[in-house]
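Support request, please re-run this one:
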Amino acid sequence: MLYLITGASGSGKSEYAEDVACYLARRDGMRYKLYVATMEAKSEEAQERIARHKRQRQGKGFVTVESLYGLAFSFPGEEKAPFRLPCLPQDCVILLECLSNLLANLMFSDKRSGGQATEAILSQVRQRQRLCRHLVIVTNEVFSDGMLYTGEVLEYVRALGTLNRLLAEEADGFLEVVYSVPLWLKGDRIWQF
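Re-run finished. Output below.
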């Protein structure tokens, strides 16, 4: 199943997504929880955010896969990728943290257009979704800041909006976290914690 979790920066969405992934793994008896980290440590602020996220998920049993360009890892029996996992896809929950970083990496570091990056991400998500029981994706709500963007930043914001909309349509569960409170926008609330 696909779960999309959005919210503003600092809303608590990442911690909530970790709790969702842990719950799903426990409920369904899955041995592995994969945390796909996409943030590039280009600045001091990014380094601190990465460190905070590592502390936050400490002791939760996640296997961290640092993959700046998406779900670029392989399970046993799949074609080789930069990182090979020790488990079968049906034995794990995947948490992608986060979609907005992944899009930025593809557009600004890998020099893809918004359309190319969107297609690449959708392809990766759909491929993993077919193989894994649960895929939890964290994304950012960046559209209500009142800013007027131009050029590459406008293309990025539009691409993220497109990704968020398409994945929300495909998701089994879609929610926004506001001040650590989850607001369900689609799907049944299937867990309590």
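Residues 129 and 135 are 6 Å apart (CA to CA). The mean pLDDT is 88.
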